[in-house]
Each structure stands twice: as C-alpha cells, then as structure tokens.
Amino acid sequence: MHIPAKVDYAVRAMLTLAERGEPATSEDLARAQALPAKFLGAILTDLRRAGLVASQRGADGGYRLARPAGEITVADIIRALDGPLAEVRGLRPESTTYAGAAEHLQDVWVAVRAALRGVLDGVTLDDVVRGRLPKGVTRLTADPEAWRPR
Fold first, then answer.
1. What residues are paired with 55 via a beta bridge?
2. 27 backbone dihedrals φ, ψ, rounded to 5°
3. pTM for the whole structure
4. Portions of the chain given CATH number 1.10.10.10
5. What is the DSSP string of 54-100?
C-alpha cells in the first residue's frame, strides 16, 4: 500500500488536533509536525469538506475535529483524501474479473482490502494519541517480520 504525503500529513495534523483538544491554526499544526504550511492548508480544506474537521474564525479560531477523536478512524482520513483503501486499475476489488490462471486473483484483492480495513477501520485517532492500539494491530507489530523491509 502506498501512503501519499497528503494522507500522512493529514493524519499527523489530525492527531495533533486530537491531542490538543482545542482549535489550532494550520500554521500551528504545520509547525507542530514540521509540515509545509501551504500544503497542509489545502489538506485541511479537503478535510473540512469531508466533514472531518471544522473551522472557526476569531481570536480563538482555527481547526478542530468535527467529531470526537474516538470516532474518527485512520481509514476515514485516507478515504476522504485518497478514495477507497484498495483499488485495482481504478476498480473496486469486487468489480474485477479474471480468466484462466488468474481466475482467483479477485479473491486476493478482496482479501487485501479486508486486511487493510481490519487495521485502518479499527484504529481511531484517540487510539494512536493514547498509544493504545487494538490488540490485533499490536499483534501484527509484535511480529519481527513486520519490521523487515522486502
């Protein structure tokens, strides 16, 4: 799975908002995570359109989470900025069809999507900020093979 900078920056900014629990400007968020402020501003606009953050004006203005941190998953952020978690040539895995030796490849792509959902739909901003990831996720990261590049 490729995680673009836009998604990485968005998750980091959202985690900062979750930790702070109060509005923050895009500049404050960019500074807190050493992110490019202009790019982050555009990302926050997309997150606002997706209903994940809200903005408020005034002296105490800035961005805040639109829902509690325990109700926003990493998958919510990815889908808002990058679309479905898994696509094959622009199609959802269940929409692919194959013949011959590749006949069962669709099952592999559906399983990949299910595995991604199992992690990303199960981890909230609150889980990450508090360092209390679901047991299934910690089991995966406890395996030394998970940390080895291939």
1. 63
2. -65, -40
3. 0.92
4. 5-65
5. EEE-STT-EEEESS-GGG-BHHHHHHHHH--S--BTTB-GGG----G
> How far is Cα 77 from Cα 52, in angstroms, rounded to an integer?
8
Which residues, in sequence order, are CB contacts of 54 under 8 Å at separation 6+?
Answer: 48, 63, 64, 65, 66
Q: For 89-126, how does the pLDDT look when each residue is reduced to its tens digit (9 = 90+)?
A: 999 999 999 999 999 999 999 999 999 999 999 999 99
Q: What is the mean pLDDT of the chain?
A: 96
CATH architecture of 5-65: Orthogonal Bundle (1.10)
**DSSP collapsed to 3 states, 88-139:** ECCECHHHCCCCHHHCCHHHHHHHHHHHHHHHHCCCEHHHHHHCCCCHHHHH
Structure tokens belonging to residue 57: 């004006």
Which amino acid does the sequence have at 50? A
Give per-residue pLDDT as tens, 12-35: 999 999 999 899 999 999 999 999
Contacts of 5 (CB under 8 A, 6+ apart): 39
